[in-house]
Amino acid sequence: MEKATESAAKAKGWKVMKAEAKTPGDSATQVTAVENMINNKVKAIVLNPANPTALVDVVKKARDKGILVVTVNTNLTPIDAADGTFATDNVAAGKLIGQWAAASAPSSPRIGMLDFDLSDGAAGGRHNGFLEGYGTDVKSPLVAGTALTKGTVDTGQSAMENLLSAHPDINTVYTINEPTAHGAYTAIKNKGLAGKVSLVSVDGACTGVEDVKAGIIGATAMQFPSRMGQQAVEAVAAYLKDGTKPKSGLTDTGTVLITDKPVAGVESQTSAWGLENYWGTK
Fold first, then answer.
1. 2-88+224-252 and 90-223+256-277: identical CATH topology
2. Cys-Cys crosslink for 268: which of 19, 121, 197, 257, Cβ 3.0 to 4.6 Å?
3. Which residues have CB under 8 Å from 215's CB, separation 6+?
4. What are the tens digits of pLDDT across the range 53-64?
5. Is residue 112 within a helix (H) or strand (E), and if so which, with residue range?
6. Is 39 exposed, middle or buried (0-12, 13-18, 19+ CB in 10 A)?
């Protein structure tokens, strides 16, 4: 996404000022970066917010200075704190994998959920969408347990180990993203449960699609980060041309379910298609 955004901006002859959060959730670095951009009198900011609320005040400060601020990948809370958001409809993505999981479920389903901070727009949307798609809620007896992760392989593994220790009958697992799913699979395999627990996720990165092909992940909802960056740059171009702002709220950049075990009523593509359309590096 970052490369696509930068490439699209430079192709228009723009100067690009960049800054990155040091770790997931590192909003302090982003606040400082936005302050620096304001002081440097930038015309627009494309922001992938590390926290949905911590950047609202500094974004307001930028917008009050006439700087266009659009978010990508995830939104601020409230979503109209930015001029526009270009991202996956994470509720829809979660709903896709929830529908697939429900259609693929064993006769006595027991669900485990590996989340990220649910105040995060993407994490909350995927979590709620999965439950909606499955046709249940987090208080249902179908849901054996939930655990927070940091969206990484190692925290996915440790959280899954803990869930399996408390609820060894778990046979369906929702994961916030594919690194978490990969870590969870390691815990499942180490327990001798490979092939007995179905994993679903969201991302569509190359490694995640390869995990679908290998049978590690049953289904994943592929998103398209390059579209997010490219559409954000086009929104900036329109603003610089004549002051036109993007529509407020979410512009959905699309989602496709990737699985090699299709189910009736849920449109999907195979891992072979996914490996031709993935994002990220091998």
1. yes
2. 257
3. 195, 260
4. 999 999 999 999
5. strand 111-115
6. exposed
Residue 4: pLDDT band with limits 50, 70, 90: confident
- Other residues' Cβ atoms within 10 Å of the Cβ of residue 167: 15
What span, in angstroms and rounded, lies between the C-alpha atoms of 55 and 34? 9
Residue 264 neighbours by CB distance under 10 Å: 5
CA-atom Rg of the chain in angstroms: 19
3-state secondary structure of 234: helix
Q: What is the mean pLDDT of residues 236-258?
A: 96
CA distance 183 to 175: 10
Q: What's 2-88+224-252's CATH class?
A: alpha beta
Distance CA(51)–CA(76), nearest Å, equals 7
Q: Is the peptide bond before 24 cis (omega within 30 degrees of 0)?
A: no
Q: What residues does each domain of the chain span?
A: 2-88+224-252, 90-223+256-277
- How far is it, in rounded angstroms, from Cα 198 to Cα 219? 9
CATH number of 90-223+256-277: 3.40.50.2300
**Token reading at 120:** 């995060």
Fill in the amino acid letter for 95.
K
Residues 147, 184, 225, 206, Cα dihedral to 10°: 180
Query: What is the spatial distance between Cα 82 and Cα 63, in angstroms, rounded to a whole number?
Result: 8
Q: How many CB atoms lie within 10 A of CB 105?
A: 16
Count of other CB atoms within 10 angstroms of residue 279 = 19
